[in-house]
Amino acid sequence: MENFYLKSSKGNISKARILRKEMTKAERKLWSLLRNGRLKVHFRRQVPFGPYILDFACLEPRIVVELDGSQHLDEKALIYDSKRDLYLKKQGFRVFRISDRDLLANSNGVVNVIYDYIQSKDEKI
Question: What predicted TM-score, i.e. pTM, was given to this entire model?
Fold first, then answer.
């Protein structure tokens, strides 16, 4: 297996460590539901990869789960996220985006959707 951090800068690795310590309420909630192989796969949190830090990543299968707060709704953020998603798709990842609001309102439903997403072979779920 390739070294997952090989494509990351040292600055991103340091920043990821800080982000792990300062997770948002939604990130803490999702991490409590994803950790320890609860969905039959191994997720990592705040993972440096290339020029980005991924909220939650699963190496096998190659899935990224991103939590989006309201800051992701403005035009600049949407363009940035689109470029980021394209970069990750080119690296062989499927990207799944969840709003913080949806996670906090219905965490079990969101986890079920993530599980179905992991099990699916179709990228369009």
Answer: 0.79
